[in-house]
Amino acid sequence: MHVQLLLTGNELMTGDILDSNSAMIAQELIELGLKVTKKTTVADDLTLLVNEINLMANQADILIINGGLGPTIDDLTAQALAQAMDVNLIQNKEALSHLTHWCEKRGAVLNPPNLKQTLLPKGCQIIPNETGSAVGFSVRHLNCNIYCTPGVPHELKNMLTKEIKSNIAAQLPIRLISEVTRLQVFGLGESALQEMIDKNFPDWPATIDLGFRAGMPLLEVKLTTNCHKGLELRPLWQNKLKNLLGDHMLGEVKGKPLPLPEQVLMRLKSKNLTITTAESCTGGLIASMLTSVSGSSESFEAGFVTYSNRIKNSLLNVEEQLLEKHGAVSQSVVIAMAQGALEKSSADLAIAVSGIAGPDGGSVEKPVGTVWIAWGSKDNLQSQCLLLPFPRRYFQQYVAHISLDLIRRQLLNSDQVPSYISERGN
Description:
single chain; Alpha-Beta Plaits; Maf protein; five-stranded mixed beta sheet; elongated
């Protein structure tokens, strides 16, 4: 089965919008045992779109067109497809009903530009849109099944998972055997993990494909099987991989990944514990990540952003002599910050960070990227210095995630040394 993608929009061509939808589509189709063989991006030009639709429909069994379903003059997908098929655009009753309900629900007026979204190629089949104003639709053209989808990522995601995948699966000539397992990992890079796998599993079975998707700063490991033998072997080798990853594995991704802050809050809640943060170089990012989770008030007590030495002293009672003798980026100060936050908030656990995010401010003794982290309870405070010589924004993100991961590991009673400490500990 040849699957191709056609992405539309001037914004994609100019770089104003970065394409993430094609990756989403490809990942969803892999679960059906299908791979995208070609991807093309075309500007909002009717002639170009018509020509590309006919070309790709002649080559592919399945064509997914993404974008161009909106109400404005540059949304041309329906018009281009109708012209390619040599059929009329007509007002689709299902699309009109959907749009009317959508406007009524929001107290909006159904105006002429909106009605443009109801003009679709004659004979098309509607793909429901649960949240957006534009329905999707499908047609068959030149022996190719064509699916037209909106450019808004969450609208596309709903259509793929709830309609399009099942429709495609029903048309496959045979039932393809395909299963995908995703493991979320923190603290290991792609090359380091690949080296670990090569070293420990030289006999990794060819019937189980390994894939890696690097994020910032998480990593996803994907195991894909496409045959009966692979399905039989997968549980054994998946367990072997999980044991190798140890506490670097945050969990198995089933549907939507569970972010690290949410995992920490779940464990805090299960143990009836609360947490506070004292941040300097991250500027409140750790507290923001925690409080972005609904229900975080049950476990999060307070966050202190103590950027200057004066505020460290006045707000968290960090002694001036510590700051003068050791400097703000030091073990003594970060421990004092954690102790001050615990005292002020009465929380059970604390995270404190102080570092040099750069690009300026470093020295020979404390280069840019140096950070001290303290974490734990009043009676069990641990601390660690790391050297993370990354750009400022990435540095802050990585420090925040490491801090949350260290608390997660403490809540797990983990005694495994994370790779970021063994490799970057200072």
